[in-house]
Amino acid sequence: MTRFALTLEFDGTPFMGLQRQPHGPSVQESVERAVQAVTSEEATLAAAGRTDTGVHARAMRAHVDIAKEIDAFRLMEALNAHLRPDPIAVLACDVVPDDWHARFSCIGREYEYRIANRRAPLTLDLNRAWQVARPLDADAMHDAAQALVGQHDFTTFRSVQCQAKSPVKTLDRLTVRREGEQVIVEAAARSFLHHQVRSMVGCLVLVGLGRWKVERVAEALAAKNRQALGLNAPPHGLYFMAARYP
What we know:
It is built from 5 helices and 10 strands. It has helices spanning 27-39, 72-83, 138-145, 196-208, 215-223; strands spanning 2-10, 46-47, 56-66, 88-96, 108-116, 130-131, 150-153, 168-179, 182-189, 238-244. Strands 1, 2, 3, 4, 5, 6, 7, 8, 9 and 10 form a 10-stranded mixed sheet that branches.
């Protein structure tokens, strides 16, 4: 049995999320179906993160165990052929030790959230960015974001369906910058709570619109109460960007 690490890129628009779901298509189901088509084996895909319906990935790390003898490059090429027409691509495929695990060996995860700050309807970025028509103050958003960096109880920014044992997480980085019409939020941490990034972005947008003062984000964090959340950003602007390993 050989363990292969995969780097996946996918458009989450047609999927119910990364994890296999009983009520709709998933990235996991598509990749496992492709593995079976290539190897005639039933393999289980394990991934570094779990993404919601409509969330995308630039470089999601995952792994599968395969008994058949096959070269990593040939496996990657064959998987890409069988994944069509699903919007999933295997960017890299490597043999890794048996004790390497895409999820449990991961020591850092990075997300990016893209906001299209313009009035005109989206065409190229439709379903790939959150459109906010009114002008956003990206500098104020960045200033407000710094209150969330560090170790905190993120109950306010946690989905009520979150299954994590503790709401305490350490946020390593949260930055906001403008690139033309795009406002980009970048977040990095060892791990995140369910909806944490989207919840943080939603509150930062309220600051950018002038509806919240910069200090209110810190106040919402201190409240440790989901009722203090101002807004949960939609999923289609969120991208899983990278997973870090020792």
